[in-house]
């Protein structure tokens, strides 16, 4: 069993084990062997849920996700014994930030494609979410059903010492989140090429990979991981555009108040073949059983029909774990300040600017990609 498979097994165990199973009494010998095995584990680390009751309450009371249905997504298919409950995937366009290029992240999708598991291995990021953002995030998501912040269903952390943790052979923290691309794999009406996605953030910041020596010092593959550009427009009715911008303002206000920067807007565009009427409300691209439903479709999580009748659009705010007050961001800010002072005046990077300034540019970017078709 390889590294990815062992990491996946530890994730599935942490998500699916019950409280009764976790508290089941064991003999002293079994306990010693378990601790010994955990310490010498390289990849299959022992994980626990952080504040599981609050995430369970969000799922059940606000997103109408039954606990049994949720854990079932992480179980093998009974009809296909060989199918793994988690599948390692690429970044799917997520996490195009400069900060994320500095670390080896892992991504998994459940076999039913409803959820993604993403590692959060850097201390500055997982400690920020745990200690600073988790409580306001839970409160915000409970009181803003239309929020565009990605719905995080669980937060997992390694427990106890191990060789794999010491040498960072496997990620120490993970989040389980809804898959905004859910429905693509099972779509039978359209070719998969009719699904497009962009990981958007303000591109006017200083990106060393792109801006030093005109990008000649880095590979095209590295530069391709930077933020995307959406060169088209989202054509919306006035009411749709107003609702979108209000939600973006509310969500980014929360992030700015807690010093978060470098988050991105993940945009999905689904072509609607044969539909040209702006009055058409055909939502057959929307799954009948999305991972977390309320409010019911059409929403930006399930698919908003464009005013010109050509597309469904989905959108979600991702990667809001980079906080300016943490040690690593402060060190990066100091380095960029020295660069601007001593070498070349390039301005701030998206990970070293102020939260309010980043929010202003982010909202400006979002407004610029929206075209309003009056009701």
Automatic annotation (TrEMBL):
SMART domains noted in UniProt: PIPKc
Protein name, as recorded: Phosphatidylinositol-4-phosphate 5-kinase-domain-containing protein
Region described as Disordered: 275-298
Keyword field contains Kinase: yes
Keywords: ATP-binding, Kinase, Membrane, Nucleotide-binding, Transferase, Transmembrane, Transmembrane helix
Membrane-traversing stretches: 27-45
Pfam families for the chain: PIP5K (PF01504)
Entry's Gene Ontology molecular function annotations: 1-phosphatidylinositol-4-phosphate 5-kinase activity; ATP binding
A biological process term (GO) from this entry: phosphatidylinositol phosphate biosynthetic process
GO CC terms, sorted: plasma membrane
Biased composition (Pro residues): 288-298
Species in which this protein is naturally found: Dichotomopilus funicola
PIPK domain sequence ranges: 1-370
InterPro entries reported for this sequence: PInositol-4-P-4/5-kinase_C_sf, PInositol-4-P-4/5-kinase_core, PInositol-4-P-5-kinase_N, PInositol-4/5-P-5/4-kinase
């Amino acid at each position: 069993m390889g590294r990815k498979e062992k990491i996946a097994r530890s994730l599935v165990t942490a998500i699916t084990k019950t409280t009764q199973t976790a508290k089941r009494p064991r003999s002293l010998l079994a306990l010693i062997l378990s601790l010994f095995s955990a310490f010498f584990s390289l990849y299959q680390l022992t994980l626990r849920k952080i504040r599981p009751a609050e995430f369970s309450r969000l799922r059940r009371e606000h997103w109408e996700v039954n606990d049994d249905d949720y854990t079932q997504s992480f179980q093998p298919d009974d009809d296909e014994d060989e199918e793994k409950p988690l599948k390692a995937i690429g970044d799917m366009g997520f996490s195009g930030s400069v900060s994320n290029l500095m670390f080896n992240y892992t991504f998994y999708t459940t076999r039913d494609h409803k959820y993604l598991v993403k590692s959060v291995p850097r201390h500055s990021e997982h400690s920020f979410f745990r200690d600073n953002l988790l409580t306001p995030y839970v409160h915000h998501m409970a009181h803003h059903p239309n929020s565009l912040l990605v719905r995080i269903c669980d937060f997992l952390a390694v427990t106890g010492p191990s060789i794999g943790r010491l040498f960072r052979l496997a990620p120490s923290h993970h989040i389980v989140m809804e898959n905004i691309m859910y429905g693509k794999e099972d779509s039978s009406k359209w070719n998969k090429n009719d699904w497009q996605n962009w990981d958007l953030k303000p591109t006017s910041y200083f990106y060393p990979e792109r801006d030093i020596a005109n990008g000649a010092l880095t590979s095209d593959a590295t530069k391709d991981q930077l933020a995307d550009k959406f060169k088209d427009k989202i054509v919306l009715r006035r009411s749709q555009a107003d609702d979108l911008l209000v939600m973006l303002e509310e969500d980014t206000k929360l992030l700015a108040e807690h010093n978060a920067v470098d988050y991105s807007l993940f945009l999905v565009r689904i072509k609607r073949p044969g539909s040209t009427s702006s009055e058409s409300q055909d939502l057959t691209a929307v799954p009948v059983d999305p991972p977390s439903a309320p409010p019911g479709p059409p929403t930006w999580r399930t698919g908003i029909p464009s005013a010109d009748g050509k597309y469904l659009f989905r959108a979600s705010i991702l990667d809001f774990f980079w906080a300016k007050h943490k040690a690593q961001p402060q060190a990066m800010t100091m380095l960029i300040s020295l660069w601007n002072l001593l070498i070349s005046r390039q301005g701030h990077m998206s990970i070293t600017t102020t939260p309010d300034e980043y929010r202003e540019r982010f909202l400006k970017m979002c407004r610029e990609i929206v075209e309003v078709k009056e009701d």
